[in-house]
Write a structure and sequence with these properties.
It is built from 12 helices and 9 strands. It is of the alpha/beta class. The chain binds zinc ion (ZN).
Length: 329
């Protein structure tokens, strides 16, 4: 008799908690802001590996930053779980800097799904799966943002005007590498730089495709491999995130170059990359150099700008301005 009562008691508790979680889920659905619902619709219809439902379930937040065409830059925070432990570091994870690298967005959603279940408070995460919504969410997805700028050449780095102009000339003015007319001329790169300044990550992980390697910038040493991807230093480019955050601000930047832009790595590879990444982060951050550089953030920024202003009007940056006018027309 006592046993039966006990069973009944636990059964009713289970039913009540089930019911309340169902109610909580439906409440959450109602509370999702329109900007996120609309963008999730567009993401779900664009990407084969991310459904509208999955995107909505991710509980992304609107950063209130907007792309050139007014689309939201969405972010998910996995906060510290202080009742369990103090996080060993802050990590910023970014996908979709280049809008035609579909897999770089999809894999970040897959990794968020892992975090949704297993976030243990080991790290404090900020995750932005799609930094360039205008690039991806259009009929023919494009690498560049809506101003035709390569966001990974628009970050502040020393001698920006001179160096990006020289670099762009070397690409024979390839429109796919156009760095913009000024560092941080674009709202998307402005958001990223401000996010770094605000959040002060101990590491940044940025996902791209399709070179099938791992790149690393900043205080040594980067991960030797993540899943099937092996470390191969690609080089330092003016205006790139690796140069700006890694070399200038001393924040380790892990650039994951997936093997294909349009094909996701296997399920097994996706989770192996993740566990390798967590392992590396666990034993390698925060770096002392990163912590030492944070109080100097504004100084480093000013120093880079001072350098940039001096060469603002040299002939080579004329080309950048002309291209901007051409794109605008
Ligand atoms: Zn890319």
């Amino acid at each position: 008799m006592y046993q039966n009562c006990k069973k009944l008691f636990f059964l009713s508790i289970t039913l009540v908690s089930l019911l309340s979680s169902v109610l909580a889920v439906s409440e959450e659905k109602i509370q999702i802001p329109a900007s996120i619902q609309e963008e999730c619709q567009r993401i779900g219809h664009k990407l084969g590996s991310v459904s509208v439902t999955r995107c909505l379930q991710s509980q992304l937040q609107d950063t209130s930053a907007r792309s050139v065409n007014g689309q939201a830059i969405l972010l998910k925070e996995y906060p510290p779980l202080l009742e369990r432990r103090k996080p060993i570091g802050r990590v910023l994870l970014i996908g979709g800097t280049h809008g035609d690298e579909y897999a770089s967005v999809s894999i970040v959603f897959k990794w968020m799904k892992i975090l949704d279940v297993y976030h243990s408070g080991l790290f404090h995460w900020h995750v932005a799966p799609l930094m360039n919504p205008d690039g991806l969410l259009q009929k023919h997805s494009a690498r560049l943002n809506a101003h035709g700028v390569d966001l990974n050449r628009n970050m502040p780095t020393p001698n920006w005007h001179e160096e990006t102009a020289r670099y762009w000339k070397n690409t024979h003015h390839d429109p796919r590498r156009y760095p913009g007319i000024e560092p941080l001329s674009e709202p998307e790169s402005q958001w990223l730089y401000n996010e770094i300044k605000r959040f002060k990550p101990d590491a940044i992980v940025s996902v791209h495709a399709p070179y099938g390697v791992l790149d690393f910038d900043g205080p040594p040493v980067g991960p030797r491999k993540l899943g099937q991807l092996h470390l191969r230093l690609i080089g330092v480019y003016p205006g790139s995130l690796g140069n700006s955050a890694g070399i200038q601000h001393r924040i380790p930047v892990v650039t994951v170059e997936l093997p294909y832009a349009g094909i996701m790595p296997s399920k097994q590879q996706t989770s192996k990359m993740w566990t390798d990444l967590i392992h590396w982060l666990r034993y390698n951050i925060p770096k002392e150099e990163t912590l030492a550089a944070y109080p100097l953030f504004e100084d480093i920024d000013k120093h880079m700008n001072a350098f940039s202003q001096k060469v603002h009007d040299d002939g080579s940056s004329k080309q950048l301005q002309l291209h901007a006018q051409k794109v605008a027309n």
